[in-house]
Amino acid sequence: MGTSLLLTLLYFIDEGCDSLEGLLIAGKALVMSIYLVGILLGMITMARLFATRCPGVGRTVSVIGSGSLLGLRIGLLLIVGPGAA
Hints:
Layout: H1 2-15, H2 26-49, H3 57-80
Helix pairs in contact: 1-2, 2-3
């Protein structure tokens, strides 16, 4: 959950004016929560897929990397609809 929140905040800092200023506006908070749910679902999915591998740094990096990419796609699907992916 913490990694998902951190990645979501980093994504929104990059999109705006390089600060967390104004993120609690209702519209931005709603979109940010949708992306947070998407990234969290992506990471949970990848963690379950990689659960059979030996624990270690490689598995953690794989789960975070592929989970965040999948999560961004899920977030886009939730916002834009099926035509986004």
